[in-house]
Amino acid sequence: MSEIVVVGSMNMDFVVSVERYPQRGETIIGKEFLMSPGGKGANQAATIGNLGGDVTFLAACGKDIFGDQLLTNLKSFGVNVEHVIRCEDTPTGIASITLESKGENRIVVIPGANHRLSVSNIERLAEEIKKAKVVLLQLEIPLETVLRTIEIAYEHNIQVVLDPAPARKLPEEIYAKIDYILPNEGEITQLCAGYNLITEKERINKLLALGVGGILITKGEQGVTYYSTEQTITQPAIQTKVVDTTGAGDIFAGAFVFGLQKGWALEDSIKFATCAAGLSVARQGAQSSIPTFTEVKEALQVMDPSSYQKLFCA
Ligand code: RIB
Question: In the chain, which ranges are continuous DSSP H helix?
Answer without folding.
Answer: 40-51, 65-76, 119-124, 126-129, 143-155, 185-191, 200-209, 248-262, 266-280, 293-303, 305-312
